Amino acid sequence: MTEETVHETEEKRSRRGISSFLRRISNRLRRGEPVPVDEEQTVTVEPAEEAELEVEVEREGGDVSLEIEVEWPEEEGGEIETETQASKATFVLYEDDGGEHRWRLRHDNGNIIADGSEGYSSKQKAEQGLESVKKNVAGAPIDDLSKDEQEEPQEGTSKATFELYEDKQEKWRWRLVHDNGNIIADCGRGYSSKQKCKQGLNSVRSNAPGAPVETEA
Fold first, then answer.
1. Per DSSP, which regions of 89-132 are E strands?
2. Alpha-carbon distance 160 to 114, whole Å?
3. What fold does the segment set 89-215 form as a domain?
4. What distance in Å separates the CA atoms of residue 106 and residue 91, rounded to the nearest whole number?
5. What are residue 173's DSSP bridge partners?
6. Do residues 195 and 76 make contact, with C-beta atoms less than 8 angstroms apart?
7. Cα–chain-centroid distance for residue 44?
8. How far is CA 32 from the centre of its chain?
9. In 70, 109, 123, 162, which residue has its Cα 20 to 30 A from 48's Cα atom?
10. Model pTM?
11. How many Å apart are CA 89 and CA 188, to the nearest integer?
């Protein structure tokens, strides 16, 4: 049989960055959804209900490799998509009443799950702002300001940190703070509990990297 490589990537990541990638695959498998295999979420596979799982550890030339392979008959799985959009959200660019350009991240259910924390003088700058969010959101650790606790940084994967906090109205919120001190995104509304706020944050983590961009008329 002829072997065809549909998609292949190779890059260096921290252990936590690898964990985040595998967690995304795990979550989609558990929910029975198409599994994105790239950061842009344009390449997806749908494994069969049952598949062969092979785990192999090798030593060679001073290097150690951990290989995880999942294999199933093609006719038992779903389609392999190479130009799809697995994200369940869309970035919307728009101009506000004051003439400033802004963006918001709208989930397919209609909810706004994130927005820019400021207006921009041009559409181009607003696009640059949302691209920074796309690039940094997935690997950003969470700094829980209510407990003085922070996840370990994910080296090389993000230049931003999620800050989780309770506001003066006792609502829970998050904001994404770049290493330069700028707030590049926030939740746009308060949540009734920390748990719900984290759920919203994780939805942004999952959907923002591969979300398409639309301009609102």
1. 89-95, 101-107, 112-115
2. 15
3. PH-domain like (2.30.29)
4. 6
5. 165
6. no
7. 15
8. 18
9. 109
10. 0.68
11. 15
What is the phi/psi pair of residue 66, to 5°?
-115, 115
Please count the CA atoms within 13 angstroms of the CA of 68 that sit on its side-chain side: 4
Instruction: Provide the percentage of residues in the chain whose pLDDT is more than 70.
Output: 91
Taken in order 140, 159, 162, 100, is the CA torsion positive or negative? negative
Domain extents for the chain? 15-76, 89-215
> Cα(57)–Cα(110) distance, rounded to whole angstroms?
45
For 89-110, write each residue's pLDDT tens digit.
999 999 999 999 999 999 999 9
Task: For 146-198, write each residue's pLDDT tens digit.
Answer: 875 555 544 446 889 999 999 999 999 999 999 999 999 999 899 999 999 99
Identify the H or E element spanning 214: strand 213-215
d(CA 47, CA 33): 9
Closest Cα partner for 176 from 133, 212, 145? 133
Residue among 25, 48, 50 at smallest CA distance from 35: 25
**CB-CB contact of 119 with 98 (8 Å):** yes
